[in-house]
Amino acid sequence: MFNNYEELSDMQIDVLREIGNIGAGNAATALATILDEKVDMNVPSVRITGFDEAVQALGGAETMTVAVLVNFSGDGNGMIMFLLNIKDAKSIMDILVGEDDSEEELSEMKISGIKEIGNILSSSYVNAISALTGLNIQVSVPYIAIDMVGALMSVPIIEFGAIGDKLMFIEENFKGETNDLKSNMIMFAEINTLKIIMQKLGLEI
Amino acid sequence: MSQLIVVGISDYKFTKGPEVIVTYALGSCVGVCLYDRVTKIGGLSHVMLPDSTNFSAKDINRKKFADTALVDLVQELKNAGVRNNRIVAKIAGGAQMFAVQPGSKLGAIGERNIDCVKKALSHLRIPILAEDTGLNFGRTQYFDLETGIMKIQSLNRRIEEF
Predict the structure, then answer these.
(1) Measured between CB atoms, which of A64, A67, A151 is closest to B26?
(2) What interface predicted TM-score (ipTM) does this complex get?
């Protein structure tokens, strides 16, 4: 029985990695459809780290990052963040709208495009987990922010870091094959949600 | 500038001028600078959550919560030779990073952190000399113990001194 993220066993971590694989696999398929190109993904990482290390793992506290955040709730509670740098966010939107403006900043239109992509990917991720576990999970509308990754990460850190000094997230990196566009999806879930998922899959907790 | 002393999330550090303490990329967390201009001893606390009272004592990291971290940091400063009635505060952070619907607890956490930091400082009878709080952007907070100046760096704003 685990009561915080540090107490997850190796086998339970393997299960989480597989859940991440299924969720992110579905999201990668959606991304490939949107971009109309092949999207590579690796085996997801299940990270159980201190708060500062979590921020470090995502590029360092002050790295400017675009983040789309979606909450999920219902039988399971958690959060998904879709992260990418400004340059790749711009490139993705340039591909989609078929233009290459040389502006440094992301226009409002491009920001809302990225928000919608984050929404589609997060929903794909959650739908795959719902289908696998039979859990009834709803996703919120997407929220977007562009800021230092440390400041953006304060939101899930506060939400999931109250007990203990470690955070758990499942991380998946996507890479578009032709344009080398990189993006990152991370999923956080409450301890209780992890227990419910394990139980639904018939595992000892 | 002397070497920077870095404070992580839910941690605090204290030292003496001419050192500079920094905490990077405060979002909804609140950075609290405490300072005594006479001895130039001061500290910076990166408060992550408002209130420890809903958690059992064995589970909590006291440096994480406004109600425990500031009491402990003040005690450390006193042990280092600061008189309580000389300590002053400057605070920053407590932003709402994502424009979530009004009323959701996710949106309100920055504000709650600010409120609880202010409450804790008021209990400790520590005046707040300056604040750069709220709004919707991240802040890196430098605290120069030589001068007592708090410097705030953000992505879309020039550096401001408090």
Answers:
(1) A151
(2) 0.94
pLDDT tens, per residue, chain A with 205 residues: 788 899 999 999 999 999 999 999 999 999 999 988 899 998 899 999 999 999 999 999 999 999 999 999 999 999 999 999 998 998 888 888 877 666 667 888 899 999 999 999 999 999 999 999 999 999 999 999 999 999 999 999 999 998 888 999 999 999 988 778 899 999 999 999 999 999 998 887 6
Query: Cβ(B27)–Cβ(B97) under 8 Å?
Result: yes
- Amino acid identity, position B53: T
Q: For chain B, state the CA radius of gyration.
A: 15
In a domain, residue A71? The reply is yes
Would an 8 Å CB–CB cutoff place B140 in contact with chain A? yes
B116 is catalytic: no
pTM for this prediction? 0.94
**DSSP single-letter state for residue B75:** H
Is B51 in the A-facing interface, judged by CB distances under 8 Å? no
**Chain B residues 101-120 with CB within 8 Å of chain A:** 106, 109
When divided into structural domains, chain A yields a total of 1
For domain B4-155, the question of CATH label 3.40.190.10 is answered with no
For B103, phi then psi, to 5°, come to 95, -20
* Type of residue numbered A21: N
